[in-house]
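lol ok so funny story. i was supposed to be doing the assay writeup but got distracted and ended up predicting the structure for this chain instead. priorities right. anyway since i did it might as well share w the group, maybe its usefull for someone
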Amino acid sequence: MQHPADRTNHRTAAGQPSEVATDDSIDFGFQTVERAAKVGLVRGVFDSVASRYDVMNDVMSGGVHRLWKSAMIDWMAPQSDQHLVDLAGGTGDISLRFLKAGGGSACVTDINQAMLQAGQQRPQLQRHAAQLSWCIGNAEALPLASKTADFVTIAFGLRNVTDRQAALGEAYRILKPGGRFLCLEFSHVQSQPLAKLYDAWSFNLLPVMGQMIAGDAASYRYLVESIRQFPSKEVLADMFAAAGFAQIRVRSLSAGIACIHSGWKLD
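and the output, tada:
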């Protein structure tokens, strides 16, 4: 059976996709696939990498993802009476950081059961079991009540969502008035010399490391491609506004390799 991320890529000489997504199609890395198929393809990727996902995050970012996540939590400044819903929360890393920083409770949501199971097996998260809940759910249509969260976050997950605008709308729906949504995601490197080095690292070395550590080069090739396909920080800020968020702020991290977008639900 062919790996979901291991299909023929149709790219131009510049390494960009040669097809443009339509109402019936969507990007899946550098491929264009039927919109209805993307959820299953993404699920296949994360089924494959779930058991080694946290290790590969360290390898992919040189451990810097830890600093980026800490920066987001510091910006949130959680309080003991506040509840977090973490979308595409996978192995629970953001929720754990939220609770350790003084947050009251957290719900980890993810469409992928294997990722949630990997998180539930982490000893650090088991120590916070009374403050944690786990929920299988699509970020585009969450099985959660409206106006129940003080914070909603998504870290390195929005680029894997088929209808990103719908996911932003769901984040807005489940937030309480006065609540806040933050998105930590890879972005576009601002320095051209650094961009060339970053591309060489991403496209040449990361799939090899994915094969060595997780036994899966194709999934990590998709993850790299999905970063390049993700909208610019300016476009994402506009998407926040379209979903209803106000007081939108953007923080670039590590010369633009990643960004944190923040928006508030004021009513």
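Residues 1-21 have pLDDT under 50 and may be disordered. The radius of gyration is 18 Å.
back to the writeup now i swear
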